[in-house]
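User: Could you check the structure of this?
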Amino acid sequence: MTLAIKGANEIPTCHGGLENLDEEYAYWIDEVEGEVPRDLTGTFFRNGPGRQRIGGKPYGHWFDGDGMVCAFTLRGGRVHFRNRYVRTPKYIEETQAQAIRYRGFGTQVPGGFRKNFLHMPANPANTNTVWHGGHLLALNEGGKPWALNPANLETLGEFTYDGGLHAGDVFSAHGKIHPRSGEYINFGAGIAGFGLKGPRPCLNVYRIRADGVLAQRVQVPLTHFPFCHDFALSDRYAVFFLGSIVFGNMLPVILGTRTIADQVRFDPAIPMRILVLDLSDFSVVREFETDPGAVIHFANAWEEADTLVVDGMFADNFRANEALKDVFNPDSRFNGGQYLRFQLNLKDGSLAKQKVCSTESEFPTFNNAFAGRRNEVTWTACSVPNGADSFFNAIQRMTHDGEATLLELPKGLYGSEPLFAPADNATREDDGYLLEVVYDGFRHRSDLQIYRADSMEQVAVLHLKHHVPHQFHGFFTHDVFLSAGD
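Assistant: Sure, the predicted structure tokens are below.
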């Protein structure tokens, strides 16, 4: 891959950060500006598509790139980097063939409908990670988790919780760990049987105990198949926003003539429906309906008397899908949403919402120890219209009362999800650091940037030896998993 060298007055777009990283590395990062905090110990996992091309041919959608997990291990003021692809059947066979062999969310196997007939999209294990119950899992909502060795990221295999996940079950990339119980709550779209109108859609909701055992699964009936990517978790409730991004006629997908991405659309005639589930038994305790829209990612949720408060990133369209289907188009722009706060009155069924800030925002993060109770600070990735906003180019610290601190990256540098990592022995909600992987379009390399979470002061920049393709989501744990030879 050859990147054009930019002149002094040219600002690179984000698109170089979508090029493949085919190599797998393991090394201590020695090129450091500033000082790595000595009161930050643990592992910062990240997951996302590591390659968007195979054999020179691009996949048909960003969601289809093969999952590449990165691990930044912080210990004693130093950082170790490791990346490794998840060895799914898709990754193994396409690497050997250097050609597309599996369908994806927006990718067809070359050769027409006969090559795609009755073949459903593969699971690239490329969206998120979680460390829970002694298991490191790579997640993608199009299939089951994949287990990894946390010390070296070796793939251990598809993970079913000892058969608790059945054939055909899928498992979201956005499960939540309840800080009080230690339980991991997750979900997946499913089919609750067949009726006169065809398959009956549902949500399968899962409860995994703190020891990693899948203890409960419940089916929640739905009226249609929504694009439900995330949910909100308060102390007593799980909250699902079933938005106006919906799947149309899936018969052409089954027949192999069209992709799922072709059939997903925003339907302004469909209101957003909100289901509130009691965490004790996953029963529906209240339903709400509001204006058309969708919430792709949630921040925190908490209860105030009879009101359930939910923070989320709201969109009133799905134009982003066009960019996701054409990631190498230099005119493509990857959009955020509106940071809204919803107040759901569980007693009288009323609903109110307000805009928390006016900056285009996505990928919210907060101190997970405060999950389910009111938190005072949330951080987001932002897009600032500065002439170099093809991808997220800023980080924002937002207080509960709406006080914003915006940190804009230099033009030509692009970040993604900032992740909050508590300091060792933290005593305050924002006593910790923001970890941000930033792509430098001028150098075609990536950095790990570390900021004080309270002041947004940059304390360290660690220069990698290569770029890291733009990734989706991360997970931080104070556990350290280095191999003996590292």
